[in-house]
Amino acid sequence: MKIAVIFNEAYPYISDVYQTELPKDLGFKPYFDISECDPIAEFEAIASSLRKAGHEAYILNIIDNLDIFFQDYKKNKPDVIFNLVEIYKDIPKLEMSFAGLLDLLNIPYTGAPPLALGTCQNKTLTKRILSSLGISTPHFKYIKKHRKSYRLGLNYPLIVKPALEDASVGIENDSIVFNSKALKKRVELVLDEYHQPALVEEFIDGRELNVAVLGDKNPVVLPISEIDFTKMPDHLHNIVSYQAKWDPLHEAYHKTIPKCPAPLPKKITKEAEETALRAFKAVGCRDYCRVDMRLSKDKKLYVLEVNPNPDLTEDAGFMRSARYAGYTYRKTLKTIVELAVKRKT
Fold first, then answer.
1. Contact in structure between 219 and 277 (CB atoms under 8 Å)
2. What pTM did the predictor assign?
3. pLDDT in tens, 312-334
4. Which of 119, 161, 245, 322 is disulfide-compatible with 327, CB 3.0–4.6 A?
5. Eight-class DSSP state of 231
6. What one-character DSSP code corresponds to residue 223?
7. Distance between CA atoms of 229 and 98, rounded to whole angstroms?
8. CA distance linking residue 95 with residue 97, whole number of Å
9. Domains of the chain
10. What CA–CA distance (Å, rounded) separates 345 from 328?
C-alpha cells in the first residue's frame, strides 16, 4: 500500500535538526540525555518503519495549506493517510476539520474521527460525558468570563487549565492554587492569555497513570504506564506540566519519569483497564488512544483526560505500553494502518 504520513508543521525552518545542550549549571541532575531534537525526523521515522513493513510510505507537511494536500493526493493517490495533523493555522479546534475533510473525500485514515477529536478537545464536554456514564472525574467548574468573586464550591487545592487545549498547554506549576487570591489570578491569566474559558478542577493528589488502548471494534488495553513523581523536588507540584513534557532544560522534564508496567494491585489494574475501555468508547475513539487517570491516596480512580491520536514517537508513552505488550514499533504502526484499511473494505 501507498501511505502518506501527513502532518502540519507551519514553521518547518524552525524544526530543522537543532542541538539542545544541557548546561553544566542546571542546578539539578538531569535524568534524560537530550542531545538533539528534530520534530520532522519523528514523522520520517514512522514512514521509514512502515516502509520496512513492506509499504510505500512518505511524509507530507501541509504547512497550514490544504492546497499542498490536494496537489499531493492528486499526484500520488495514497491508499491510506496516516493522519498526524494537529493544530491548523494555530487553531486547536481545527484538528477535527482535517479528519472531517478526509471523511468527505472518502479517504481512509488512521486515528480518531472528527467527532471524537472535537469532543476530547473540549475538556468540559468530555468530563460531562464520562460523568453521565458513572466514570469518575474530578469535580470541576467552567468559567467563561471575569467575575468579581470565584467562589466555586470546590475543595482546595485546585488546578486551573485552559478548557480547549491539549498536550498540557497552559498547565504550569502555578496552575495548582490553594486559595481564592491565587485562583483568581490563574483563572484570569487563562481567560486573558489563552482567550478561552478556564477549567477549574479539584486537584487529585496521587499517582498518575497512562492507560493506552489499541484497536477499533474490539480494542485492547496495553500495559499501564505510570509517571513516577518520587524524584520531584518540593518546589514543584506532582503534575505533568507543559514544561515536564516539552522543555528539556526544565527540572520537571527530568523528574517526571515514566515507569511501565506500573506496579499496581490486580484489582486496581482491572478497574483502570475497564475504565479506559469505557472512556475510549464513550467519546468515540478508535485505533489508538491514551486515557490519563489519577489514583487517589484512598485508591479511587479519576479520569483526567482522554487523548485520541497520542504521540507515537518510539520513546513516548503509548509506544512504551505497546512494547511491553509485545508489539514492536513497526508492528504497532502496521496494526494502526490495518485498522484504517479495514474500515474502507
1. yes
2. 0.92
3. 998 889 999 999 999 999 999 99
4. 322
5. T
6. P
7. 36
8. 5
9. 2-111 (3.40.50.20), 139-203 (3.30.1490.20)
10. 26
